[in-house]
Amino acid sequence: MRFYTLAAAVVAFATLAPSASAQHLTRADGSTSALPYVSPPAASAPAASSTPGITITQSSSQAVTGSSVACGGAGLTADNSYFRVFDLTASGVATPFRPTSVSFGVQIAESLEPQTASIKYYTFTNPAGAFTRANLTRLGQTDFVMPDQERSIYTVATPGIFTAAAGSKLVVELRLEDTDNRFYIGSNTAPETGPTYIQSDACGITDPTPYAGINFPDVHWVLNVTGENSAPAGPTLISTPTAINFGSVVVGQSATRTVTLSNNGSATTNISAITATAPYTVNLTGTTLALAPNTSTTFTVTYTPTGGGTANGSVSIASNAPGSPLTIALSGSGNTDVFTTIPAGTTAGAATWQRPETLGEGTAGSCALGTGTDGSAVPYVTRPFTVAAAGNYTLTINYAPRTPIYDGFIALYRGTFNPASPCLNLFGINDDGVTTPANTSSQLANQPLSPGSYTLVVTGYTNGDFGAFTGTVLGPQVVTFTGTAGEGTADNSRSSLSAAPNPARDAARVRFTTATAQDVSVAVYDVTGREVAALYRGAVAADQTVELSLDATSLPSGVYVVRAVGTSVILTQRVTVIR
Asked: What pLDDT is stored for residue 252 in this prediction?
């Protein structure tokens, strides 16, 4: 579990390691000080962007010298969005403006995993209204992966997918997602002609807010937008994205992606056909085939593998635009994995242990352990199992609702498990999962397991984190659970969960009853453990039957699991959706 605060970057630091910590606003040097603040020595000032065209900026200096501020903690940064608002007229652009690239300052970027980011363009829905999320209309977006670097100016090409109207306000957002990475914008204290804004849900900043408004007025983000002052002659057609990789999709399931088609030309683009090669399909519901200048439309592409292995394909879009047909490359792989249900249970009332904090496989005492209230005496139960077929397995545990939500934790051991030696044979640990809200699941993804015996330990992050849980294992073959140990107080007597009709095509009635009064959460999960529908969350009286409706119209064909998880009850029911 991570708590977020605004944090500041440090240019020189040790190798990153994920950790749970409070998240807050602090500076790039690790301090939390507002003004007065003495900036670190300046690096040599990078040159401004040399991209041809018109460049607009509110930065009087391109030097990256200041100590920037972001929402983060424990050396990592959370979700952060940075904004600048350009009044095109005040910026000296009297004609329509078509952005082609954005260059921005980077104080430091270091990643444990690919750092997903995006440049987003907006205009004000109500030109006279306030600068809020609700008053923004999206114009275009370019996604990219942020490479590691420091004290630099980084440029992202944003193909001219739209033209901003003359006299309008152009809003530029740099969005960094919440991953196990570290990113701080490049800033300085030189004068700026417009404020730098930050927004981060993790730190409770739900609308763009000037840095001066959060007591960091010396953070002036270096940002430049380069573009052209006229639209291309005739019709044009641009796709976003230009290629799609669906990744691994379980056979019988489907994955869908959205494609945006834009015309930034001076004449209408007429689309005559949009087709895809098997096993990919397109859905043109709501798609506009006649695109006026400076407009866009969307369609979806779906990948439904019928067998294992890689599948390459393409979407072809025929139109009157130059270069027709426009082609979008498609790729994906069919995953023939199956899932095993982990025996449900609860850690309430279970024995306690000192859980591991970091990995240290092979020898006792080679890993760090939880200390104090963060892991020194945490309730735990075990789920021993055997693997017959080598391959990558994903283990997912979902936790029961509780107020406050408890932060679960899982540890995987290869061979024997001894709670008195929590580092011995330790294979993997994690407290983060794939479901929302946060801290309602833990997952160990794509673990390379060889044939043999293993023990999954279900526990909590702090000594006060315990409760009921369910789970699944997804892999190339069903695994065999050989028992449970340390069980707490889960009680499924006089409780039931059913779904009908089953198989279901459009809808199913879900009914559940609990033997005792308690808070219950009912949700639907796919075979990867991802929550696809939330059906119920609330109080239930003893022996009360609750009937719910599962809308299956938006679910791809396949097998799903309905889970009803309460304070002292865990129920599961498989449901098959057919088309």
From this structure: 78
Bridging pattern class, strands 243-250 and 326-335? parallel
The two tokens of residue 114 are: 């690919």
pLDDT tens-digit readout, 152-166: 999 999 876 677 888
Angle CA 446–448–449, to nearest 5: 120
**Strand (E) or helix (H) holding 313:** strand 309-319
| One-letter amino acid for residue 535 of the chain | L
Q: List strands edge to edge, sheet with 290-291.
A: 243-250, 326-335, 309-319, 269-276, 290-291
Do the Cβ atoms of 261 and 237 come closer than 8 Å?
A: yes
Q: Where are any strands of DSSP class E within 402-506? A: 408-414, 426-430, 441-449, 452-460, 468-475, 480-481, 496-500
Question: What is the average pLDDT across 292-314?
Answer: 90
Q: What number of helices (H) and strands (E) belong to the chain?
A: 0, 44
In order, the DSSP letters of 531-566 are EEEEEEEEEE-TT-EEEEEEE-TTSPSEEEEEEEEE
Query: Is residue 364 within 8 Å of residue 389, measured between CB atoms?
Result: no
In sign, the C-alpha dihedral spanning 396, 397, 400, 404 is: negative
Phi, psi (rounded to 5 degrees) for 537: -150, 115
Under the banding of pLDDT at 50, 70 and 90, the label for residue 282 is very high
CA distances from 315 to 16, 166, 244 (A): 40, 34, 10
Cross-strand partners of 226: 55, 101
Q: Residue 345 is which amino acid?
A: G
Q: Is the pTM higher than 0.70?
A: no
How many C-beta atoms lie closer than 10 Å to residue 45's C-beta?
Answer: 15
* Coarse DSSP helix, strand, coil percentages of the chain, rounded to the nearest 5 percent: 0, 50, 45
Across the range 404-418, mean pLDDT stands at 85
Percent of the chain with pLDDT over 90: 33
Task: Quick: pLDDT tens for 520-550.
Answer: 888 888 766 677 888 988 888 888 889 999 9
Instruction: Give residue 453's pLDDT band: very low, low, confident or very high (50, 70, 90).
Output: very high
- The DSSP annotation for 133-144 comes to GGGEEEEEEEEE
Name the residue among 572, 465, 469, 567 with its Cα closest to residue 523. 572
pLDDT in tens, 10-47: 433 323 333 334 455 555 555 444 433 333 333 333 33
